[in-house]
Amino acid sequence: MKGTRWRRVPWVSLSCLCLCLLPRVVPGASLLPYGAGAGDLEFVRRTVDFTSPLFRPATGFPLGSSLRDSLYFTDNGQIIFPESDYQIFSYPNPLPTGFTGWDPVALVAPFWDDADFSTGQGTIFYQEYETLYGERSLPVLQAESWIRKITNNGGFKARWTLKVTWVNAYAYPAQWTLGSNTYQAILSTDGSRSYALFLYQSGGMQWDVAQRSGNLVLMGFSSGDGYFENSPLMSQPVWEKYRPDRFLNSSSGLRGLQFYRLHREERPNYRLECLQWLKSQPQWPSWGWNQVSCPCSWQQGRWDLRFQPISIGLLGLGSRQLCSFTSWRGGVCCSYGPWGEFREGWHVQRPWQFAPELEPQNWCCLWNDKPYLCALYQQRRPRVGCATYRPPRPAWMFGDPHITTLDGVNYTFNGLGDFLLVGAQDGNSSFLLQGRTAQTGSAQATNFIAFAAQYRSGSLGPVTVQWLLEPHDGIHVLLDNQTVTFEPGHGDGGLLSRNGSVVSASFDGWAAVSVIALSDILHASASLPPEYQNRTGLLGVWNNNPEDDFRMPNGSTVPPGSSEETLFHYGMTWQINGTGLLGKRNDQLPSNFTPVFYSQLQNSSWAEDVISSCNGDSSCIYDTLALRNASIGLHTRAISKTYKQVNATLNQYPPSINGGHVVEAYKGQTTLIQYTSNAEDATFTLRDNWTDFKLFENGTLLWTPKSLEPFTLEILARSAKIGLASALQPRTVVCHCNAESQCLYNQTSRVGNSSLEMAGCKCDGGTFGRYCERSKDACEEPCFPSVRCIPGKGCEACPPHLTGDGRHCAEPPLRVIQLLLSEEENASMAEVNASVAYILGTLDMRAFLRNSQVNRIDSPAPASGSPIQHWMVISEFQYRPWGPVIDFLNNQLLAAVVEAFFYQVPRRREESRNHVVFQPISREDVWDVTALNVSTLKAYFKCNGYKGYDLVYSPQSGFTCVSPCSRGYCDHGGQCQHLPSGPRCSCVSFSIYTAWGEHCEHLSMKLDVFFGIFFGSLGGLLLLGVGVFVVLRFWNCSRTSFSYLLHSAEASP
């Protein structure tokens, strides 16, 4: 070699020297702690592509304008939100155009490019943080801090967060790509807003840009419904795209951080509202929820004085409500339809505070699409029905006092004074009802002029209400000695109410009293709960036994049917001695007042003419005759008739509806459900008509689902005889899966704000999609750019300069060498590059690809002063699977390069100069940088033909695809045929044997041949036996003829 020899300087050291001279990089954002030490879980599969398990945020995840139910991450730097649990793909190839808003898949892409974990390098860590109820976690707090700072919103509170960290991820194919990436994605939502943070480890994004042929990384997100954002780096040169750790976020002032708002608009999250409410409630109600129920019709409830009509604006139009409140067991409100049919009931813990109860019901049951949340709500707030409703037991006091006891006994009592009507108590409360009578004008009769009731319970002090008769049928009402003034449409908070001239009091939703004034007489009714049974007063002993109603305070009983005089004396025993609830009287009572009795009045000469209008009503007749006033008698008759109608209505129930509460149907198929009723004259109708439903008057329901239009099915049964109706709102579950066997009727989602639920689908047989309506095809995941996909078959071959399976393509593995060259022509870097490329391109095996580096190396000037320049060149050659290329590059390349630079022929061309003459080199000037052996290369080449072909290597032919059929795949002479599914043996028979098995490896004897040989041998043995027998028989006969006895011969003469 001419000139001064120069010392070799390793190119790696020079590269490091160059990097050290670069400007100092601003520190980037640090990744959140990850790995096992941070509590993360590891998930990696040693395959080219894989996906994680599904994550299912309880609140859902807002993305674009949708609330997504599930998501998963892939090895390729994506977090994907699938349309269904069976639509799980890894999508290794980024969209060439970036996100456009028309993207078919909803995903978040921190670094979407084809990664490869199959070689055992790299891993993925993840951790899910659920902070629904204010739990604290340091990574979540850090994410919240970044989000608040960037959005300038200090109120963000994460309820669900996912952290995924890709650690040392290599590009496909990992076997020969250089550099790995480490980065992190954080998804966080408060239920209404959602954000993504991408964090890239400073200096940790090291993929070789030169090796990313065709694939270009994509960062950003697409919601799948038109909302998207591409990373600002997508508009930058390719080398900047692959170094996101150097990107400066202007909002945070940090490098290596990208931030995205994932929700299009902020919406309330009713799943979250429901879950938080459920958390605040005991799993089972601690109050007496099972002790309350609703009247079964509006008509029945209106006469149950424990219930009061109210108006709740939160409920729909056309509904009416009745509510009852009890301090110690909570309250209940009941909703009724236009026909008075009971629709639903719910619990209310505090009087007149409906929103705190109705809102959770709406959150959990009406405004979200997850029926399981409604089931959890109903566990905390069990449904209130009417099946256990029992009307109160009424008693009446009207006219010149006519009394109907709690056991239904009628009698007249014209006592004068203050009397105890009811004195009752149970374990929770006590109740007193007293009445005051006065003489009716100058007649020998009395009527009520005042009532007073007092209620006590463990949670309420004594509450006293007084009704005082005023002139012109007025009623003066006192509550705890304070006058009550009724405003139109208002009561006093639930205790007192006024409906026309009737003033009612409901004591803690337990006992009730209603008073009306007519003809300057107070008439009253009282309703008591069953817990007050077996208590006494003028209203009798309530025990469902009329025989002992006239029991006196001393315990003795007046038998029923006793004379009026006897009953008068019985009633006087309940006179209050001293001061009662009504206080002292202002008038002086005569000491020996005796009323006129009915038997005395019947003998009046003018009675027939006056009482004809009473139509035989005894109370009307008595009052008319005693007071000599037909008008009062008619009022008494009207009051009596009203009370009887009330009693009848309270004990009258609407027709029942018996049948399925859940109706399940498959699309296009008719389901029949039969509903029946306990009322013979009940007719069935639908509240709203739907084209998919048909209900006959006899209760036969036909459902043929044709669409998923939301609807609420409500069945009505009405009795024309009593004019009452019932309603049933069954759950309707439709399955739209591709096959009926795929239906999951126990996994449903609600369709809109309706009673329709859609069954989930369990896809099988290679199907996927929301309804399993799509068959999995190799073309579902896009092929490598510019590679066509053939439906049913898959991706075609990679482009000519790339290798892979058509979906994953990369430059073939490279053979890399380092050359140390010198020349005396003062050539430029471009001239050196062109000349070396020309020389290496003329090698016998045309495998040269490019020079990846050409660097001039400074060295001390030679003593002779000749202008020698020294160059370091990194040259890359492409392995190809066919021919002797592999053998040449691995075993002959270095010697061929030395020879090529030894025999240089000067060349001149008009184009760029490529005729630099280099000094001859030796083997010491050529170094191996990268060389791959045959076993390593075998992993990068695949047979794209029929399944089962094997790669076989030979130095001259390279890799060839060989069928096992050519290498003795079938034994015992079996014929081998290579089909698309793989090699298959056709076994043949020979001699007395038949071959069988996958490789014809087993032998079995033919049965016909076996039995032929067997019976042939048996026949041969039989013939042989017969022959032997004949021979022996003949031989024995000959011996007898020619033999003789020796002692006989000797005895003859």
From TrEMBL:
<dbReference type="GO" id="GO:0016020">
    <property type="term" value="C:membrane"/>
</dbReference>
<keyword id="KW-1015">Disulfide bond</keyword>
<keyword id="KW-0812">Transmembrane</keyword>
<feature type="domain" description="AMOP">
    <location>
        <begin position="266"/>
        <end position="381"/>
    </location>
</feature>
<dbReference type="InterPro" id="IPR056619">
    <property type="entry name" value="C8-3_MUC4"/>
</dbReference>
<feature type="signal peptide">
    <location>
        <begin position="1"/>
        <end position="28"/>
    </location>
</feature>
<dbReference type="InterPro" id="IPR005533">
    <property type="entry name" value="AMOP_dom"/>
</dbReference>
<dbReference type="InterPro" id="IPR003886">
    <property type="entry name" value="NIDO_dom"/>
</dbReference>
<feature type="domain" description="VWFD">
    <location>
        <begin position="393"/>
        <end position="582"/>
    </location>
</feature>
<dbReference type="InterPro" id="IPR051495">
    <property type="entry name" value="Epithelial_Barrier/Signaling"/>
</dbReference>
<dbReference type="Pfam" id="PF06119">
    <property type="entry name" value="NIDO"/>
</dbReference>
<feature type="transmembrane region" description="Helical">
    <location>
        <begin position="1009"/>
        <end position="1035"/>
    </location>
</feature>
<feature type="domain" description="EGF-like">
    <location>
        <begin position="962"/>
        <end position="1001"/>
    </location>
</feature>
<protein>
    <recommendedName>
        <fullName>EGF-like domain-containing protein</fullName>
    </recommendedName>
</protein>
<keyword id="KW-0245">EGF-like domain</keyword>
<dbReference type="GO" id="GO:0007160">
    <property type="term" value="P:cell-matrix adhesion"/>
</dbReference>
<dbReference type="Pfam" id="PF00094">
    <property type="entry name" value="VWD"/>
</dbReference>
<dbReference type="InterPro" id="IPR001846">
    <property type="entry name" value="VWF_type-D"/>
</dbReference>
<keyword id="KW-1133">Transmembrane helix</keyword>
<dbReference type="InterPro" id="IPR000742">
    <property type="entry name" value="EGF"/>
</dbReference>
<dbReference type="Pfam" id="PF23263">
    <property type="entry name" value="C8-3_MUC4"/>
</dbReference>
<keyword id="KW-0472">Membrane</keyword>
<feature type="domain" description="NIDO">
    <location>
        <begin position="110"/>
        <end position="265"/>
    </location>
</feature>
<dbReference type="InterPro" id="IPR009030">
    <property type="entry name" value="Growth_fac_rcpt_cys_sf"/>
</dbReference>
<dbReference type="GO" id="GO:0005176">
    <property type="term" value="F:ErbB-2 class receptor binding"/>
</dbReference>
<keyword id="KW-0732">Signal</keyword>
